[in-house]
């Protein structure tokens, strides 16, 4: 079954334009991962209707997004930057990295592809379990 692409929300298009217009500044060594999360990643997921800051005031067990949620992978504890949940059930994780010039990094915006929770066992942060979004930004 072929997925039909939908147009990205206006706020997402605005974020992409801002990054493209100022790419040199955002990929400079002084721009860090925390800045990326606050200025781009949090607003991106807010625009996609995820309650990143728990504005609804849900108890810990029912938050939409848990920051640096601990998960065991291959006997080691990992803490991805974002754990996205529905009804308290983990659905996918996102790990961010400082943006780098696109010629040195395959993901210039600094997002490591999302890994659905069942595939996270041993695959956190790898592109192998990444899902495509079907969303156009232009």
3D shape: globular
Helix content: 10-25%
Poorly predicted runs are 118-138
Distance between the termini: 24 Å
Going by helix content, strand content and strand pairing, the class is alpha+beta
Please give the number of β-strands: 8
- Please summarize the sheet with the most strands: 4 strands, antiparallel
Look at the structure and give the mean pLDDT: 79
Q: How many structural domains can be distinguished in the coordinates?
A: 1
Order of helices and strands: EHHHEEEEEEE
The value of Rg in angstroms is 15 Å
Q: What's the tally of helices?
A: 3
| Beta-strand fraction estimate | 15-25%
Strand order of the largest sheet: 2-5-6-7
Q: What layout of secondary structure does this protein have?
A:
Blueprint: E1 6-7, H1 10-21, H2 23-26, H3 33-47, E2 65-67, E3 71-73, E4 76-78, E5 82-86, E6 89-94, E7 115-116, E8 135-136
Parallel strand pairs: 1-8
Antiparallel strand pairs: 2-5, 3-4, 5-6, 6-7
Helix pairs in contact: 1-3
Structure explained in plain terms:
The chain has one domain. It contains 3 helices and 8 strands. The strands form 3 sheets. The chain has a 4-stranded antiparallel sheet with strand order 2-5-6-7, with no helix packed on it. Strands 1-8 form a two-stranded parallel sheet. Strands 3-4 form a two-stranded antiparallel sheet. α1 runs antiparallel to α3.
Write a brief caption for the model.
This protein has 138 residues and is of the alpha+beta class. It has helices at 10-21, 23-26, 33-47, and strands at 6-7, 65-67, 71-73, 76-78, 82-86, 89-94, 115-116, 135-136. It is built from 3 helices and 8 strands; from the N terminus they run E-H-H-H-E-E-E-E-E-E-E.
């Amino acid at each position: 079954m072929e997925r039909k692409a939908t147009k990205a929300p206006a706020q997402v298009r605005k974020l992409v334009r801002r990054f493209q217009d100022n790419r040199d500044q955002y990929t400079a060594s002084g721009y860090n991962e925390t800045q990326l999360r606050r200025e781009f990643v949090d607003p991106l997921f807010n625009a996609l209707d995820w309650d990143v800051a728990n504005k609804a005031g849900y108890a810990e067990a029912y938050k939409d997004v848990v920051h640096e949620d601990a998960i065991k992978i291959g006997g080691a504890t990992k803490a991805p930057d974002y754990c996205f949940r529905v009804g308290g059930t983990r659905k996918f994780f996102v790990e961010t990295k400082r943006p780098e010039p696109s010629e040195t990094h395959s993901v210039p915006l600094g997002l490591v592809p999302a890994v659905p929770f069942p595939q996270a066992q041993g695959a956190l942060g790898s592109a192998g379990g990444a899902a495509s979004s079907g969303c156009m930004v232009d």
